Amino acid sequence: MHAYPEADMTARPRIQSVSDRDPVDDLVGENDDQAADLVPTVDVPEPEPGEDDLDSAVAALFWRLVLLFNVALLGVTVGPMVLYFEGNIRAGAALLVIGLLAGGVGLARYVAFKRQRRAD
Questions:
Q1: H or E segment at 43?
Q2: How many CB atoms lie within 10 A of CB 110?
Q3: Which of the two residues, 1 and 91, has the higher pLDDT score?
């Protein structure tokens, strides 16, 4: 016998039947046309590019500076690695000097451009 006679261990719990209705339909409803009406429409204007947007001299200087700073980054990072790991003093030093010169020229051109823009 069990210590609690009112507890029937052989009884199975009742499983409630699942209804065929979806609870989301009760909340949202079945009319999809109303949901489409709730979304606002927005007219996004397209900007018209002007002639002043991009100066060709500024664009050309930008790409020259990108090239110079990429060469500088390559030389300053790879040069010391060639010096240390390969022990090739001539190639490592050449890469390092080229990188430093390219960085210096790029920086000088950038500073000159900024000074010219401030003067205008």
A1: none
A2: 15
A3: 91
Q: Name residue 90's amino acid.
A: R
Rounded Cα gap, residues 120 and 116, in angstroms: 6
Asked if 103 and 79 touch (Cβ cutoff 8 Å), the reply is no
Could you give the CA distance from residue 75 to residue 68 in angstroms, rounded to a whole number?
A: 11
pLDDT one-digit tens code per residue, 43-86: 888 877 766 666 888 999 999 999 999 999 999 999 999 999 99
Q: Which amino acid is at 32?
A: D
In whole angstroms, give the CA distance from residue 72 to residue 104.
Answer: 8
What is the domain partition of the chain in residue ranges? 67-119
Specify the 3-state DSSP secondary structure of 52: coil
H-helix or E-strand spanning residue 106: helix 89-119
